[in-house]
Amino acid sequence: MTQLIEQLKRHEGYRKHQYADTVGLMTIGYGYCLSHNPLRLSDEKLKRITENGISKEEAEEILNQCVIQTHNKLALTLSFFTALSTVRQECLVNMAFNIGVAGLMEFKHMNFCLRAGDYEGAAREMRDSKWAFQVKGRAAELAEQMRSGEY
């Protein structure tokens, strides 16, 4: 999971203070969405980090927790998830971290390809999406990761 964490840190970037992401959601650290607060941070902790910012160490701790939570949600949501190689699982975790598990479920053709073991088709569906247009290099990197099964 170390490669996934480093990849997410590179894709998301670190911001000490809160900012509005590309769709206007308040975010901090390595892409942690304060607006949705998926880890259910306490009101006290939310107030502290929104007022004073977040350290890199604290942001990385939150990132690690989000990755575990996202991985677990995908394992429960996608029947084929645990049959995928670790690299392909981590590719989906990266995507879901970016667009949410619900957003990932909208990739119906990609998921159909994955269920069938068609990784070339899954990569093509990733590259030919609105998401790929929005995140450009990230999508190209993850599509190749999905196709090859390698970082």
How would you characterize this protein structure?
The chain has a three-stranded antiparallel sheet with strand order 1-2-3. It has eight helices and three strands. It has one domain (2-148): Orthogonal Bundle (Lysozyme), CATH 1.10.530. It has 151 residues and is mainly alpha-helical. Helix 1 (2-12) packs across helix 4 (86-105) and helix 4 packs across helix 8. The termini are close together.
Brief digest:
With 151 residues, the protein is mainly alpha-helical. The protein contains eight helices and three strands.
List keywords for this structure.
single chain, 151 residues, mainly alpha, 8 helices
Structural class: mainly alpha
Q: With helices defined by DSSP (H or I, 4 residues minimum), what is the helix count?
A: 8
Mean pLDDT: 94
Query: How would you write the strand order of the largest sheet?
Result: 1-2-3
In total, how many beta strands?
3
Broad shape: elongated
